[in-house]
UniProtKB/TrEMBL annotation:
Residues 10-118 form the tRNA wybutosine-synthesizing protein domain. It is an enzyme of class 2 (transferase). Probable S-adenosyl-L-methionine-dependent methyltransferase that acts as a component of the wybutosine biosynthesis pathway. Wybutosine is a hyper modified guanosine with a tricyclic base found at the 3'-position adjacent to the anticodon of eukaryotic phenylalanine tRNA. Residues 183-205 are annotated as: Disordered. It comes from Macaca fascicularis. GO terms for molecular function: methyltransferase activity. The gene is TYW3. Pathway: tRNA modification; wybutosine-tRNA(Phe) biosynthesis. InterPro entries: tRNA_yW-synthesising, tRNA_yW-synthesising-like_sf. Its EC number is 2.1.1.282. This is tRNA wybutosine-synthesizing protein 3 homolog. PANTHER family: TRNA WYBUTOSINE-SYNTHESIZING PROTEIN 3.
Amino acid sequence: MDRSAEFRKWKAQCLSKADLSRKGSVDKDVVELVQFLNTRDQFFTTSSCAGRILLLDGGINGFEVQKQNCGWLLVTHKPCEKDDVIVALKKANGDATLKFEPFILHVQCQQLQDARILAVRSTHGLEVPLSHKGKLMVTEEYIDFLLNVANQKMEENKKRIERFYNCLHHALERETMTNLHPKIKEKNNSSYTHNKQRNPEKAHAQCITKENDKELENDDDDLGINITIFPEGY
């Protein structure tokens, strides 16, 4: 069996498995993106989150938040209200921490060149302790301030998901055209200067295309994408 067939088999097996996330389904804001990737032969997704605000209750002896060892007091994928946080904090027994986590996507790629298209990172998060040993350590005014910041990050996160999807869609379409017509790129490069003088609008469109490609490749403050290459020993 060739590697393409092996990858298709692996993809089919993974996508047929039940969704084991807490929600049990793909978040609404990334459904279109996940479906788009899963229709491409060289990709498939294994997990995703559109971004969320959560309140975790951790142990009283440690400072590092580890979700697997925490109680989940509150989680939402939309803007959060202060009253909801205040009510949830009353259930805290340890060190409660408010977090905003941006969009994350785990993607399996058939080849390294496929993974390069998706290689972006994120620092668009928020993590602030609110209580210690069950005792609230901040004022409600400060909680309100934090939620305004978290909610703004949530809105910006949605815009970044849309921008990423549009850039990815464009990049994969251009890759497809290049694979079908390998001489196109060479021809475009050789005629760019000449066309720029004769057709300013067309030249401007080419510049926009290059800017979109650069945005997809170099915008390392947008999103969290975890990429795994198809293993040799599968």
